[in-house]
Amino acid sequence: MTTHPSHCDCCRPVSRRDFISTAALATAALALPRLSAASAASAPAQPPFIDIHFHHNSAGAPIPGSKDANDPTMVAIGKRNDAEVVAHQKNTGALFSVILSTNEVTMAFAQRDPARWACFAREPADDTDARQKIERLLKKGAIGIGEMKETIACDAPQMLQVFELARDYDVPVLMHFEDTLWCDGFSRFHRVLEKFPTVKFIGHAQTWWSNINKNYTPAAGKSPKGPVTAGGLTDRWLADYPNLYCDLAANSGNNALTRDVEFARAFVIRHQDKVLFGSDCICATGVGPTCITVRKFEALAALKLDEKVQAKMYRDNARRVLKLKAA
Ligand SMILES: [Zn+2]
Ligand SMILES: [Zn+2]
Ligand SMILES: [Zn+2]
Questions:
Q1: Quick one: pLDDT at residue 45?
Q2: Into how many domains does the chain fold?
Q3: N or C: which end of the chain has fewer CB within 10 A?
Q4: CA 34 to centroid of ligand 2, rounded, Å
Q5: pTM for the model
């Protein structure tokens, strides 16, 4: 995968010839990194990237009986400790990561290394004090809200209250669209986009990606395969609403990138200022075929995007939309 200009020395694999000539020139061989030519050549090329969709819960798994305790993803997230989370992002090569759905404990973890981490705030939107709790985290330094993964509809009055908060604090909102389960009512969401034109919404998850296809019906399931006909709701709204964005996170993002490569390539190019890189991987290591991030790199490499589009998708859109200072 070509992700860097050929003159970029920081990531260029070291060839045997380079290694030998560099070693010969060095007056102090001990100053060189202990790379063998073989190990350098086998290292996979990884794009420098900002991960805007990552999870961690330093406080551990959700409390039994709490709203999030019913979400297997949240339970899995809670099993990963601080060291595993740091290692995961280091192994995948993330320059900077945004932890979603943070709580005060995880926010303290992130704030110990602000050059690498930022947080989005989220509390269950149907909690009576959701707005106050989210606002408290925004005041502590959260740079966005989400991901909203709620048992109420995406346009429920309690959701609108959260969107008002996003408007007032001028921060983006990340949405998990999965009809009938989380944030139901996707087909009505354009009204929210119209009601909050200054709020940047970032779409993700099964219903979001299923609706790239103009011919999608729920009967096709949550992870539809096969050719895509352009012009689905997702595709149209990204074109029509300047305040709508998306991230490529999770298996749903990987499915959308791989089910019809020709469509996916055209989609990313068409929405090159709107697509952000996110992983949503909850594996413990950040290496190997079970890592969602690793598989996403492979899926994106198959699209053969040019350097300009890759730079936007992997880094620059995140810097702009999330107003990142450290990354
Ligand atoms: Zn999600
Ligand atoms: Zn997520
Ligand atoms: Zn992983």
A1: 60
A2: 2
A3: N
A4: 37
A5: 0.86
